[in-house]
Amino acid sequence: MMSEFTLIEAANGGRPKVAGLAYGGGKMNLPGWKFPVVVDLAGMDIPDTVPLLTNHENKTDARVGMVTASVKNSSLEITGEIVSDGRDAQDIVAQSKAGADWQLSIGADVKECELVKAGSRSVNGKIYAAPFYHVQKSVLREVSVVAVGADATTKMQVTAQFNLTNTNPIEGDLMTEETKTVAANAEPVKDLASAEPEKKAEAAATPPAVQASATTDMTVTAVVAAENAVKAERKRVGEIQSICGGEFPEIEKQAISGGWIPSQVTQKVLETIRAERPAASVHISVKARPEGGELRKTVEAAMCLRVGVSADMLEKSYGAPTVEAGMAEMDMPLKQLLAECMKLDGIPYSRGFDNETIRAAFSSVSLPGILSNVANKKLLQSYEAQPVIATKLCGTGDLNDFKENDRFRLTDVGDLLPVAPDGEIKDGGLIEESAKNQLETYGKKFCLTRKMIINDDLGAFMKVPTAMGNRAARLIDQLFFSRLLKNPAQADGKALFHTGHKNLLTGAASALSADSIKKAIQMYLDQTDADGQPISVEPRYLLVPTALKHLAVELTQGATLIMAGGSDNVVRPALNVLADENLSVVSSPYLANSAYEGNSASAWYLFGAPGQVDTFEIGFLNGKRTPTVERGETDFNTLGMWFRVYFDLGVREQDFRGMLKANGSAN
């Protein structure tokens, strides 16, 4: 007995199906990542089902379906169905029916990521050369339908679903794509005369009017079914031809004659492409959306990058993943920064931007903290970039308060003595010598104004901490040279550089020359400690004014040849003994600057290495060796946010034995 078949389109109960390649397993160049990214499919956690979105939008109406993902042939493939009746879903189905192809993109949370800096590494069955980011562990969160991806050959096929029914339908039977061919080839029931004997007997017992009606209805149904089957077959062939695109004639011929459905053709084409060439990377969105404290760090990193703080410096504070995430947000305007800070603190805000919005943002906790940290990073970068001479010549120390502190050191007294026959070792002694140091606080304030925010002028705001970082570094030199040139009195009542301290070279013979340097070195080496014994420390630095810099280099580093006179014109080599002293020449404009008391364009100095002998000490408060930026109190008269920078610092001489001065002139 032949069954009757009716094709019911997807809109009448069935759901469109989707299938395609989501990720080919190769390298990707993604926004916000310094180097290419490879996601390790072996380390990807794939849920049983994931949502099918449009364009990675995390909105309710953007979810058009659900899909199942699986790893095959080192690629991520998906199958599923469109469950939404929304406009986006309808557009996807409508354009697919019209012959348009869609592409796929995935969204994933990054759990573990490593930068492969050198060599190569095998990931997803292929070897990739460094540098690239190896995403070792991730979680697949969603798959999105996109119009254009990075891989032009990647397609998402949308297939209509049909119901298959017969004269005795079983509820829930569905017609698959393979059975469409059966329906297309089904013979229409022309009349009851061709039916089996049982049917003829049933017809004879049926009133003529009923028979005629049944025959007509069955004939119309068969014709409609045949027409629908022909349309379906034509559509199938058209989709196959579209998928093959004239590039795969053998697959196209085999698919048409074999009754393949489009998803089978797509799979075959993809397998052929992968076999012929390496899989191309598709458009992929790898997301590690920060929240709470991590989001705040990302915003801070983005602002620091925007004002020119180096990524290498930021990685020490925030880590590479946060800095990479910040790169994607580094074009964030100040208005958006205010909005993000209000979100972080749960402060309501409107889409408009007015004075109330600015005041509300200023009242938040996150905005002042972020701007303070950004200003600190910018100031620190400027501070470290400024060359400081004093740090070469001086030691450092930590002070606990702002009172004048005694800086004690112990000096041994008495030589080692022979051990007595009875084995007794004689007592030695220690004496305590002291110097002083005292901290002062130096600072300034600056303001982020309403005008800067509206003009998005973060650069103008950052010019102040940049200049202050430079100034803070120069302050160390200013304090050091001011103290050095004043030649202050010491605890014994004598000046720091004094003939009684055996560290002062005077007279016309003290002008910078090979002979005066030799004499100064001899005086330095003859210096004795409190016990009258040589300190056994050699000078390491020759400090001179800028006018004497090149002469000092010539005298201490140059190799010379002296031409002897006479008829024989003998060439005699002369050994520059000063070159063996390993003196490092340091020049400074402060020494001859008229703004400093005791300045001289001819005086010069010898210093020992601070690690071997006490010279000057640069004191800091409790180990804080850099300036600090923090938010100041809001001034009602200024529509803006005040910040202040301050630096706790003190510079004092410690031991006259560690340095020597030559006046450089007869005065």
Largest sheet: 10 strands, mixed
CA radius of gyration is 43 Å
List low-confidence stretches: 1-12, 150-154, 159-219, 277-289
Q: What share of residues are in beta strands?
A: 25-35%
Distance between the termini: 132 Å
Q: Which geometry do the CA atoms define? A: elongated
Number of strands: 29
Any overview of this molecule?
- This protein is of the alpha+beta class and 667 residues long.
- It has 4 domains: 17-159, no CATH class; 170-273, no CATH class; 293-374, no CATH class; 440-662, no CATH class.
- 33% of the residues lie in helices and 26% in strands.
- It has 17 helices and 29 strands.
- The strands form 7 sheets. Strands 2, 3, 4, 5, 6, 7, 8, 11, 12 and 15 form a 10-stranded mixed beta sheet that branches. Strands 16, 19, 26, 27 and 28 form a 5-stranded mixed beta sheet that branches. It has a 5-stranded mixed beta sheet with strand order 20-29-25-21-24, covered by helices on one side.
- A hairpin with a 2-residue loop joins strand 9 and strand 10 (126-129).
- The N and C termini lie far apart (132 Å).
